[in-house]
Each structure stands twice: as C-alpha cells, then as structure tokens.
Design a protein that fits this description.
4-stranded mixed beta sheet, 3 helices
C-alpha cells in the first residue's frame, strides 16, 4: 500500500504525515508513506487545497488535517 501526503511541507502537512504513519501502524499495514511536494504533481491529482491524502493513486481527501481515525477509514475503505 502506498500513502502519499500532498503538500508543500507546512506544519499541517508534516502532522498529516505523522497521522498517516500512525494509522497504518495501528492497523498493522505494511504501508509506504511518501511526501509529495511537487505542486505540478499535486494539482495533477486535482487537489487545489493542501494537505491531501492519496492511497494507492486515489485521492481520499484534501484541504484539512485528517485525524488518525479518519485516515484509518481511508485505509480500510
């Protein structure tokens, strides 16, 4: 499983990355968490508001700092 965190590197983006890692750990998933800071790639996903979460190439949410529990739902769904 690949989890991409979309954002320029702001504090919310860093917190979202930490939440994603925690969510994957709590679910016992072998997930690769990658930060994407390239704005061309971010807008290529159709994301106009960061931070964003992409799981296996599908945008799950953007524009807010998602909690560990919210990210768990993204990973299970």
């Amino acid at each position: 499983m690949k989890i991409e965190i979309l954002g320029p590197g702001c504090p919310r983006c860093k917190a979202l990355e930490a939440n994603a890692k925690q969510a994957a750990k709590e679910l016992g998933l072998d997930a690769e968490v990658v930060k994407v800071t390239d704005m061309a790639k971010i807008t290529g996903y159709g994301v106009m508001s960061t931070p964003g979460v992409v799981v296996d190439g599908k945008v799950k949410g953007s524009g807010k700092l998602f909690s560990v529990n919210e990210i768990k739902k993204f990973l299970q769904g």
